[in-house]
Amino acid sequence: MHAVAPLDAPSETDSKASMTEALLGFFEALPMACSLKDAAGGFRYMSDPTRRMFLPHGAVDLPNSTYDVFPPEVAQEILAADRKVIESGQVVRFPVWLPDNAGGRRLLAMIKFPVPVHAEVLIGAVAIDITAFTSAAWDASTYKQILDAISDMILVKGPKSKLLWANQAFLTAYGMSNADLQGIIDAPFVEPDLSQQYAKDDQQVFSTGKTVDITEEPMMWADGKARLVHTVKSPLFGKDGTVEMAVAVLRDITDRKRLEVELRQAQKLESLGRLAAGMAHEINTPIQFVGDQRQFAQDAFDDVLGILAQYQDLARKVDAGTATATDTAAIREAERAIDLGYIQDGLAASFASMADGVKRVSQLVLALKEFGHPDSGTKQAGDINAAVRRTVIVATNEYRYVAEVELDLGPLPPVLCSIGELQQVILNLIVNAAHAIADLGSTERGTIRIGTRVEGEFVVISIADTGCGMSPDVQAKVFDPFFTTKAIGRGTGQGLSIARMIIEKHHGSLAFESHVGTGTTFFVRIPRAGA
């Protein structure tokens, strides 16, 4: 250490040298990394604590560049901060995970600032090692105990999606400790394309400072099994208002999604069960008509066989030369007795009627079969208008005694959707419309109007009834699970809540307009592309 010049008569040169020596001594004594670099990135000064932390043991010379000290990814991040200091003249603060010469990783709070020296501006750097402080703070914190008690997985991330901390739920799922995940990113846990999407969502949080809500995304567990999670990523702001970290809360919804599918299927089966008696009646009517027509055809056939026998007897007599006018008159009398002309016309009409009856039964059975067919679980191109027609057939017995159904189906493109689930929604709305008309108590039949059309990027299905309508109180609760105004045995209150869940799954909407005493119209909107 240079001697300090006497204070009573210092020269300007001695004063500056003394000050420089004192400052250097001050930096060497600080328990943190301190360095100076020029604008070109060359090191001008590096304190002994800095050397011990990052340079090989025994190194004497200053490194030529940042790349000689740190890995490329870390060096690029530090050099970007250096450029910002030179260009803006402002202080830059940021956290960074750095490898040390002992093979570990350290979390440093990095502060970069301009240092004017004569006509040159150097870049000063102070790095405070907060690794131990951060770990100790989390380990000893009551908040950590609270977060570890939560069954949802919680992650804290720094810039570039680097993991800083995770609660016990996450650590258990991956068989890791917080020490294992320090500074790494999502890539070890998931497929590369999923990792890129996660990082993109993280970047959105850091760049916008807004929460990102991902309702459903896949995530690979350590056991290799894919699970579905609902993820909410939120920013954590520093004192200067910038986003320093992101907190991700992940809820495993795999079992919930499975239960939702089972609930929808159960509700569909319930609907089919309720419609079974009505369908039996619908099928019985044409079957009974076919039976009546078959009896007519049988009786006519017996009459025709009788007169055919007389024709055959007459033919034998003609061949034998014994036929008489009396034989011919007997046949004419038999024709008049059975009204052969009526039989000829009636049989043609009867066969046509039986064909219509069989076709009607076939349509009912096919509609019921297609309606009740389980979904594949994936969206496919579906014909919405065909789904409407099938559902109207299946629901016939629900509305036939109270309303007429009018269809106004416009031209629609194929829609990527779960057609079985949409049929379930349409059925619920038709049944509700029929019940609303019946509840009006009018002696006149009401009307259910079903229309389809394209509005921009959406396909719209409208189902309007001339029923009793809903009061404001009922409208406010209409989508609540298990809420119903119907009598016991007529409804469980799940239909509309499940219908909305299905439509929201299709990224669409279910809305309505209702007026007491005049009726209700429901509007189903789903994206044409089935996004």
Provide a quick synopsis of the model.
The chain has helices at residues 12-29, 48-54, 72-88, 131-140, 142-149, 168-174, 178-181, 192-208, 254-320, 325-338, 340-372, 384-394, 396-399, 419-440, 472-477, 495-505; strands spanning 33-37, 43-46, 92-99, 105-117, 120-129, 153-157, 163-166, 212-220, 226-237, 243-252, 380-382, 403-409, 415-417, 446-455, 458-465, 509-515, 519-527. It has 531 residues and is of the alpha+beta class. The strands form 4 sheets. Strands 2-1-5-4-3 form a 5-stranded antiparallel beta sheet. A 5-stranded antiparallel beta sheet has the order 7-6-10-9-8.
What secondary-structure arrangement, pairings included, does this model have?
Layout: H1 12-29, E1 33-37, E2 43-46, H2 48-54, H3 72-88, E3 92-99, E4 105-117, E5 120-129, H4 131-140, H5 142-149, E6 153-157, E7 163-166, H6 168-174, H7 178-181, H8 192-208, E8 212-220, E9 226-237, E10 243-252, H9 254-320, H10 325-338, H11 340-372, E11 380-382, H12 384-394, H13 396-399, E12 403-409, E13 415-417, H14 419-440, E14 446-455, E15 458-465, H15 472-477, H16 495-505, E16 509-515, E17 519-527
Parallel strand pairs: 12-14
Antiparallel strand pairs: 1-2, 1-5, 3-4, 4-5, 6-7, 6-10, 8-9, 9-10, 11-13, 14-15, 15-17, 16-17
Helix pairs in contact: 9-10, 9-11, 10-11, 11-12, 12-14, 14-16
